[in-house]
Amino acid sequence: MSKAAKYVLFAVGGFAALLILVAAVAFLLANAYVSKGRLEAAASEALGMEFSIGCPKGYEPNPLIYKSAVREAQRLGSPLPEVTSDPMEAAAGAHAVYTDVWTSMGQEKESKKRLADFQGFQVTPEMMAAAAPDAMFMHCLPAHRGEEVAADVIDGPQSAVFDEAENRLHVQKAVLVTLMGDGTDD
Question: Which phi and psi (to 5°) does residue 145 adopt?
């Protein structure tokens, strides 16, 4: 198998995984060119992409989900998903670098702990330099500049966050049309 595109997610868990998958796949497909990463891992296996999750110790994917992702990758002949607590290792050579807020809604009481736990996982210009030269930065928004991502990255030339948000809008409209019907099935 030839070297596939590499997608890296800095895992934070929560419902964001579903939004990340929809946004990432919609963006990548629309532009022809990522919970705890379970959906992104499934998509990367099906598409034959390398997939790395960079997360602090204690924030790793559910072991049952990870084992299932490994089995599915083996079945499909796709690269095995990787989990590392070294953010630079996760980002090395990545074509898409994705992160989310470190504290999601409903986790506000954990905010101080999460801020401490995720130190070193901020997506910085140095981390993007470790990625592939044409790497994109992605985030489902809203973002906390200076927390999970440096302003130089989210506002920089490698950032695809606004294109991603626009594509997510179109995907969500398509889901609504599908769920509500288009009026032709009478």
Answer: -60, 135
DSSP characters over 81-102? PEEES-HHHHHTT-SEEEE--S
Give the count of beta carbons closer than 10 Å to the beta carbon of residue 9: 33
Decide if 1 is inside a domain: no
Number of domains observed in the structure of the chain = 1
84 vs 141: CA distance, rounded Å: 24
pLDDT digits 0-9 by tens, 123-159: 999 999 999 999 999 998 999 999 999 999 999 999 9
| CATH, residue 84 | 3.40.50.1370
Domain that holds residue 111: 6-180
Q: What angle is formed at CA 161 by the lines to CA 157 and CA 166, rounded to 5 degrees?
A: 125
pTM for the full predicted model: 0.76
